[in-house]
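Journal club prep, shared notes

We agreed each person brings one worked example of a sequence with its structure written out as tokens. Mine is Putative MFS family arabinose efflux permease. I'm keeping it raw so we can talk through how to read the token line rather than staring at a rendered picture. Sequence first:
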Amino acid sequence: MDTSARASDGKAGTRSARLGLRANLAQFALLVAVNALVGGMVGQQQTVLPLLAESEFELTGYSFIFTYVAAFGITKAIANYFAGTLSDEYGRKPILLIGWLFAVPVPLMLIFAPDWGWVVAANVLLGINQGLTWSTTVVMKIDLVGPTKRGLAMGLNEAAGYGAVAVTSLLAGYLAEQYGLRPAPFLLGLAYTALALLLSGVFVRETRGHAQLEAAQHQPRDDGVHDHLHADLTNRQVMLQTSLKEPALSAASQAGLVNNLNFGLSWGLFPLLFATADLTLSQVSVLFALYPGVWGAGQLVTGALSDRIGRKHLITAGMATQATALMVIASGDAFTHWAAGTVLLGAGTAMIYPTLLAVVGDVAHPAWRGRAVGVYRVWRDLGYAAGAVLGGLVADALGLSAAVWAAAVVSAVSAAVVAVRMYETHQKPSKN
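Then the structure, token by token:
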């Protein structure tokens, strides 16, 4: 239910803030649209770049091809941290706009890249763009909806982002097949960036006042679990609590890292694995789109479901489902087999992705929530680099399927860690 209380927004003069999805529906929907454009920036290249590496740049070593995924993941992880700390200090909207400015050269660099170094450099800029913009839209949506609908908010946010990854991956693959690997697929990125700058600069409003309102109304848990998490934690304390000390936050951070390890591995490896069966580019595009497509659509259900049944069991089951899906993919050699595996992988990811963000929102105090989201996303997006390194090294040494088997084992271990370490973070509101 929407909160009727109001508070002055320090960044907006006399403008008042109200918490709740219905009270902020227009801004929330706008931020969902912006996050879809963020996801589309990744989707424009996922299907195309591994094929571009082999056909135009004549790269054959898997570890070398995956350098662009590692570069993306490391820079995105670093940008996530700064997005959290700077948005808490200076406000959300300026960080969102700066993030989109980093996206401007990316499609042009991919179109005109004379060697693979340009592709890696473009992905460094893309990582900064994704870290600043995606982290900021996550925090802004949590600001707007308040404490009761975090799962739903994160489900809508991530569904938009990864749904756009899927749709754009499919569209980019079609454009590549019809018009060549360059420049047609990357023209999508130019259009997305222009539209996002317009929406973010003109129509998006600052949401830090909503976080200040929630902080003023903040009620600690009745069971005392969070008594050590005060409003005035330093940056170092937030980093330690989110990474190591606080059981739910640290369990979420490791699960997020493993999830994106799987995504990073799939990004660089799946198109090459699927190509071993002499599939057409359209078939490869469909297989690659199924994973984020099911992931994106599933979050429309799982985010809200976590608000009803809790977070922990969804996350544990989701990691176990990912492990099973990777086993199916690793043992496959045909389109239908791989399609079943990618659908299952998307379903498992949908169970955990918005739920992990909701866990961070549940535990972190509103005064340092932006920083906690940033730290969590640092660990999560380091998974891109971990997946690229693990996938590249194992694939070079033992083959493509072996790399997928290795990721399956890591996912199973992660599920066990969540089952043992995480407590249930979602408390249903009192009916009184």
